[in-house]
Amino acid sequence: MTRRQAPSRPPPPKADRPFASTEELLAIINLSRRTLYEWVQRSLLPIPRTMSDGNGVWSRWPKTAIDHARFIVEHRALGYAFDEIRPMLHARWGSADKVPLEEVEVREAQIKAAKTKARESP
Questions:
Q1: Number of helices and strands (H, E) in the chain?
Q2: What domains are defined for the chain?
């Protein structure tokens, strides 16, 4: 006897969903799942909601996690350390230890100037 399953509704289009999947974030960062969760531990990404339908467990990330991930990847490519990125993220998207945006912009300019100077030095 085969078991009948309730007809499943197709998932809403990605643009209309209020959440992001782990796979979407992994495609953005192009790194491992472990790295993604390390970024959560470092307070760089928001904590995902864990969901289950009885057939498995998956994470639903707040939609802002996509912007956070892109921001982190872009700034890492520019040579910023995680400790430098964290206050920028928190200033832009908010956090308990929020730093005023003006301070972040000043700090970004200082870091950029120092890196430019270091490259120009023999």
A1: 5, 3
A2: 18-120 (1.10.1660.10)
